[in-house]
């Protein structure tokens, strides 16, 4: 039998048991509606999570491994994962549409954007060649400059690009070592269960204090049942706000992990530049979308960002946090000459 209907079947069985045990139609309608209404939100959430898990399994199976396509990027990533304390988690590297991390069947993975990975591969090769060039003689350099050829893309600031990518990778490692993917799934199920528990306790206490007894007629039972089912709406509206707040907290913690594991101040500066760039791009997009020219306040921008990307903190706040780590770098690393 389909698992998606398991909770509904269980609720029906409990309602039937109440019917036969109480032999009272008004109570059966009232308590049956309460059971169904209470299980509705958790049941729908379980159904969505079940479908999402299947989709994730199919997606992960179809994603190519970074190791098979770009050994130099894989070697770079594994080195950073090891230094950041992620080697014990057996994190696999996959190609995807954007930077992301997750877990499926107790296996952790990090997705690297394919386009950015191509640029990263070129940057890493440029750094490697630059290091090799320093050891070359004058005639070896002359030979390479005039007779050597390369089809690789040229990254002007390849060191900065690598530093920025290193910090983003550490951000995803932070998600992996903190089990954020698993915790997010638990939260998605825990929120509706918690909301139902709070509402049940509040309703029970209110009925006790006000001495409100179960309805004695069918019409009153139907009326109370409508109110019970109507209570699903505010709980469903609360769900995304609570989850998005938790998601923003996880993103902030992953940013902290990345900053705390930075190896140089240049990596922090590159990460700060990325966050500032995101803020600039977002502000430009908001102003372009304005039909009537008016100055957008910071409150307007923050409100728009929560609608545009509710799962991530405001870019300016993320940039400010990175800036604090930059300001503290000289204090924590007095011998570093940058």
Structural class comes to: mainly alpha
Taken in chain order, the helices and strands follow as HHHHEEEHHHHHHHHH
Q: How much helix, percentage-wise, in residues?
A: over 70%
* Overall mean pLDDT: 82
Distance between the termini: 63 Å
Query: Rg to the nearest angstrom?
Result: 28 Å
Please provide the count of β strands. Answer: 3
The number of helices is: 13
Principal-axis shape equals: elongated
Q: Could you give a quick summary of the protein structure above?
A:
The chain is mainly alpha-helical. The chain is built from 13 helices and three strands, in the order H-H-H-H-E-E-E-H-H-H-H-H-H-H-H-H.
Write the layout of secondary structure elements.
Blueprint: H1 6-22, H2 25-62, H3 66-69, H4 71-83, E1 92-96, E2 100-104, E3 107-113, H5 114-134, H6 138-147, H7 158-177, H8 180-209, H9 218-230, H10 232-260, H11 265-289, H12 298-308, H13 315-332
Parallel strand pairs: 1-3
Antiparallel strand pairs: 2-3
Account of the protein in words:
A hairpin with a 2-residue loop joins strand 2 and strand 3. Among the domains are: 1-62 and 181-237, no CATH class; 63-177, no CATH class. With 338 residues, it is mainly alpha-helical. The chain is built from 13 helices and 3 strands. Helix 8 (180-209) runs antiparallel to helix 10.
Key structural traits:
5% strand; 3 strands; mainly alpha; three-stranded mixed sheet; 74% helix; 338 residues; 13 helices
């Amino acid at each position: 039998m389909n698992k998606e209907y398991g909770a509904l079947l269980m609720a029906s069985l409990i309602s039937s048991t109440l019917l036969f045990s109480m032999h009272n139609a008004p109570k059966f309608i009232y308590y049956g509606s309460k059971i169904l209404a209470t299980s509705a939100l958790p049941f729908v959430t379980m159904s969505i999570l079940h479908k999402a898990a299947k989709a994730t399994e199919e997606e992960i199976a179809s994603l190519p491994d970074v190791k098979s396509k770009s050994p130099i990027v894989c070697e770079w990533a594994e080195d950073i994962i090891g230094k950041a304390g992620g080697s014990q988690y057996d994190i696999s590297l996959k190609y995807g549409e954007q930077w992301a991390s997750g877990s499926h069947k107790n296996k952790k993975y990090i997705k690297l954007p394919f386009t950015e990975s191509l640029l990263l591969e070129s940057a890493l090769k440029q750094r490697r060649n630059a290091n090799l060039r320093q050891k070359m003689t004058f005639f070896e350099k002359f030979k390479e400059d005039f007779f050597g050829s390369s089809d690789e893309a040229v990254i002007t600031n390849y060191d900065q690009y690598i530093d920025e990518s290193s910090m983003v990778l550490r951000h995803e490692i932070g998600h992996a070592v903190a089990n954020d993917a698993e915790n997010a799934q638990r939260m998605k199920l825990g929120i509706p269960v918690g909301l139902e528990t709070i509402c049940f306790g509040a309703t029970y206490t209110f009925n006790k204090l006000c001495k409100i007894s179960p309805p004695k007629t069918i019409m009153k039972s139907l009326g109370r049942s409508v109110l019970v089912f109507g209570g699903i709406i505010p709980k469903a509206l609360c769900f995304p706000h609570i989850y998005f707040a938790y998601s923003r907290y996880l993103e902030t913690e992953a940013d902290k992990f990345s900053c705390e594991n930075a190896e140089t101040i240049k990596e922090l500066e590159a990460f700060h530049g990325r966050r500032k760039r995101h803020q600039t791009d977002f502000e430009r997009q908001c102003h372009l979308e304005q039909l009537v020219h008016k100055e957008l306040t910071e409150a307007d921008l923050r409100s728009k960002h929560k609608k545009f990307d509710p799962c991530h903190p405001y870019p300016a706040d993320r940039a400010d946090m990175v800036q604090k780590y930059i300001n503290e770098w000289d204090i924590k690393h007095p011998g570093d000459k940058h």
